[in-house]
Amino acid sequence: MDIPDTPAVPVEALTALLDGRWAHIREEARKRMAERGLPDTADLTTEQYRAVVFEEMRALAESGYPTTGFAPEYGGAGDPGGSLTAFEMLGFGDLSVMVKAGVQWGLFGGAIEALGTKAHHDAHLRAMMSMDLPGSYAMTEVGHGSDVQNLRTTATFDGDGFVISTPDESARKEYIGNAARDGKLAVVFAQLIVGGERHGVHALLVPLRDEDGAVLPGVRIEDCGPKAGLNGVDNGRIWFDDVRVPRGALLDRYGSVDADGTYHSPIEGDGKRFFTMLGTLIRGRISVAGAAGSAAKKALAIAVRYGERRTQFEHPDTGAEIVVLDYLAHQRKLLPALATSYALHFAQEEMVSALHDLPEDADRRELESRAAGIKAVGTWHTTRTVQACREACGGAGYLMENQLPRIKADTDVFTTFEGDNTVLLQLVAKGLLTGYQQHIGERGMALFIADQFVETVIERTAARGLIERLVNAVTPRDEETDLLDRGWHIKVFEDREKHVLDTLARRLRRAADPDTDAFEVFNDAQDHALRAARVHIDRIVLEAFVAAIERAPSPLLNRVCDLYALANIEQDLDWFLGHGRFTTARAKAVTGAVNALCRALRPHASSLVEAFAIPDRLIAAPIALGDNHTTVSAARVMGSHGKGESGKAVAR
Amino acid sequence: MDIPDTPAVPVEALTALLDGRWAHIREEARKRMAERGLPDTADLTTEQYRAVVFEEMRALAESGYPTTGFAPEYGGAGDPGGSLTAFEMLGFGDLSVMVKAGVQWGLFGGAIEALGTKAHHDAHLRAMMSMDLPGSYAMTEVGHGSDVQNLRTTATFDGDGFVISTPDESARKEYIGNAARDGKLAVVFAQLIVGGERHGVHALLVPLRDEDGAVLPGVRIEDCGPKAGLNGVDNGRIWFDDVRVPRGALLDRYGSVDADGTYHSPIEGDGKRFFTMLGTLIRGRISVAGAAGSAAKKALAIAVRYGERRTQFEHPDTGAEIVVLDYLAHQRKLLPALATSYALHFAQEEMVSALHDLPEDADRRELESRAAGIKAVGTWHTTRTVQACREACGGAGYLMENQLPRIKADTDVFTTFEGDNTVLLQLVAKGLLTGYQQHIGERGMALFIADQFVETVIERTAARGLIERLVNAVTPRDEETDLLDRGWHIKVFEDREKHVLDTLARRLRRAADPDTDAFEVFNDAQDHALRAARVHIDRIVLEAFVAAIERAPSPLLNRVCDLYALANIEQDLDWFLGHGRFTTARAKAVTGAVNALCRALRPHASSLVEAFAIPDRLIAAPIALGDNHTTVSAARVMGSHGKGESGKAVAR
């Protein structure tokens, strides 16, 4: 397949397309982050690193970006979309800062805002925003990570206030950010017990440390110790030995207890209330997805710059050394990943926009599901992409100075925190099946069983009219449609989703039979369910890319979208062939088209990564900044009895 | 698909099967390593860590294992297979020690033995073995990593000795182990120039440091600085500013220079000589493959033990919490990887055996190619598996105390050092095509062009008679053959290899036409070539597994082999469907069989990892040693004003 040359696009124009609706936030964040640079953490102990990150947090608080989402009456700008975009930009910097910011302003602050009422807001929001009140979000327990509904910490009403208790070791709070060093107040998730009756999981404010930082009586905190990465974040374990808090400590928007011990809630049913409260997690997941996207972009920028410069082996005819990015295998490692980063970028922006514009009382389920899915698909993309970039840089990619090791180590946990990706995809699958709500209480959060399914319907989330037109324009004879036809891509993605979902629904219907072991039915179909979720998210991502191109047509972005769509299809070729969707000739043509698109986009690889506009001070890797040969700090040269001085010799 | 229960096998019996020919070496290594435990490196600076590793090396040298491969007249045991097995066992320990041992005894010592002659052996082997003479293997240059043939350091005969020079920055030696701190002598690879004539790459002994450890005049060494992992190894950069060495410094087994300046070599042709000398790399690659295999086994042992204990979510009918390894998705993450680890184990042992038994003057090309391929396939398996294990342990897998982060960081570079995996697979592909030798000189190491191809022939490497019988017993109607029929598996693997190779040969034939751009032809087929290499290695690995079961029949190992074979086939379903090998029904049945095998092997998962017999002191991860809840060191508890003392409270 030959693809005509694609006209080059000025980098600035591409950047403008990517910057989108919150361009001003991105621009300011870039300027600010370029000025500050990356904190120099190379030779620090863990405690020193944590102190540096705390100072970065103070400075961040002063900048106002991370808190721009809070209400103006407390000093924010009431701009949740801007706030999420700011978090995304933090992904270009030190990721410990990003994660600690997420804990403080996303989870801790977000929970006070979303689950608390005016008294809590008045008492804590300003201090939380300014970092005068560093806090923790104590949800996860060591015995119940993803299964939040079954956590075991208790908050028992004793007639006056609540007693917070850790009943056994499995109930200790685990991996809690801001716990080991800084947290003064925690949002603690516990089973609420009033007059012997259980009301499900609720959140309460529990002080952890006094003004001087001493841990308070009844609270025990242990350091989680060194981690693979993110060592600037002070994760800890917390036990509560019957800690008493006043009645007002309960974040009571969705559940309150009167002075006389009567429980009230605007939401009936523990399960529904629980999921409403969990809705506060949506911003955390969107933030992680965004920051993961930024980290992948930075890794790609480093690897593409290196791949443009690095040569290996000679051309058999000319004898000239070949730039490694000219090799198909190298392009295959980087360019489909780059195209996917573009696709996820637009999906992320669309999701942020959708949340920003969502009316307060709107149904948030679609968006919660989308956030869970994009977080899962996006963080896995980051893990794979950073790994590919590391390998594409060979030994140079293994040196800390070249940043990839740190990006890799810091982002690794993204796939399992803020919701384990596998569990999140199950959540998405469950959301896709109708009729699941009836069973959610008794059947557990990760299991989904339905006794009736309606035919699944593809609900388009973006550019609905355009997509309708594109799909309708495709001739019915798939086999002959141009492989670069966008309508065909969408049709293929939609058809895949619909078929996977329909067949999943059919398999799970068996569980309605009371004689079957519901778990067996679910478990046998688990990989099927995960696929359903993934292909659903893939379709949403493609739609977002298509919508972005519709807003600002660009032949180059069109090519990038082609590569995203076809590389995604190629990864599922076994499915398309196995379900009679493609002939073998068509399947071969898909692989040929991916190769051709790699060749066609190869000349634009640099523009595509430079368009991310990541400041050089944040890229920081010597292999990506000028000559690989001039990266030497004279201080590290150990022997120099030869003819030149070390500094000179290095520069010769 | 229902698979009948497989009888359990005592762990000791499985261990005996795995231990194989060098069981005594494995047993002794286990005993020794269990006694020493892992060095405690948690709070060390890089320099301290290096010092600890150096002491471990001294102790290792005293144990005699790593040097058992050298000739008895120098204090070895003349047991190369035993030596390679000892390296494999080092993979269960601290990997900095393993890599430093590989540099010292594998590369540095191995080069002196293989490329030098008696004078070099007499002068250096004993001191090298005892660690009195720490040394470096200075091959890689920053500008020419994989392209060794084009490295630029020169060794110019000046009538009396050689002058070693680094002509420009791209020729600086890079990532050289033992260089930054310890190395006293280096085997330096350089372009040999005698009387103005170039004779290609040769190796010379060049002193780096004096007795006191001071870097010698003319040598400059710089520390590579912190790395993603392996920070106990002192990697450095080296420049030579016209360093003079005597004529005897040339390791002259394959090329020597007379006092009068006449060059002699027993091998005609620079290219052929070069590849003969590169043959010394084979042991390094086998060692890395072995140690990578051990690291993956250790990660699997940790993840399976955790997966057996960890619960998540409740059974919808019983309400009991479900052990995570009971989930299909969890089994899918771990069990096919475990089966592949078994397969690679037997392939590794067979390769070690083959090298051990190879007559001195035999053609080593098949084995060199196999070592390159198994190193590539095996180290990628390790990277993927350790990642899967990390994710399967959730947040716990991210804590350093649980070892997975270190295994991950330390093994990450295995995919690109001792030969970049992509380059190695190309080497394998080249080896599979006949007639390539003629062009190797002028066309470069990574490119392969042939002007004539014979029909490819599958050469079986193991259990030839048995495999012949198994394949012949398969009925011609594939579709109806039992999916667990071993002969069918082999047939499928062989057919895939043959077809991929035949079509690759046909594509590359076009390059013989002088009007084509040979590079374009090669580059367009690069992914095809990489696939050819991979499926070739996959087939060799399957044969090795089959041969091992033939030596010691075991129903359980048979099931493990089924899972290896079918999971491997499943990964290539797109290929099998796309090439008309499977019907869609057959493809679906393959996926069903993989799921069924996961279920069938689930009860044996523990036995299968315990059979690796990794001492608990090396597993070390609290999540894999007894209760996850009793991992607390009192020293790290920061607040304990509550009712219990910290120690007691933790154990309650």
Automatic annotation (TrEMBL), chains A, B:
PROSITE patterns: ACYL_COA_DH_2
Keywords: FAD, Flavoprotein, Oxidoreductase
Domain Acyl-CoA oxidase C-terminal: start-end pairs: 490-624
Domain Acyl-CoA dehydrogenase/oxidase N-terminal span(s) in chain numbering: 25-131
Cofactors (names): FAD
Pfam annotation, one family: Acyl-CoA_dh_M
Cross-referenced InterPro entries: ACOX_C_alpha1, Acyl-CoA_DH_CS, Acyl-CoA_Oxase/DH_mid-dom, Acyl-CoA_Oxase/DH_mid-dom_sf, Acyl-CoA_oxidase, Acyl-CoA_oxidase_C, AcylCo_DH-like_C, AcylCoA_DH/ox_N
Domain Acyl-CoA oxidase C-alpha1 intervals: 279-433
Residue ranges annotated for the Acyl-CoA oxidase/dehydrogenase middle domain, each copy included: 137-243
Coiled coil: none
Protein family (similarity comment): Belongs to the acyl-CoA oxidase family.
Annotated protein name in UniProt: Acyl-CoA dehydrogenase
Source species of the chain: Actinokineospora guangxiensis
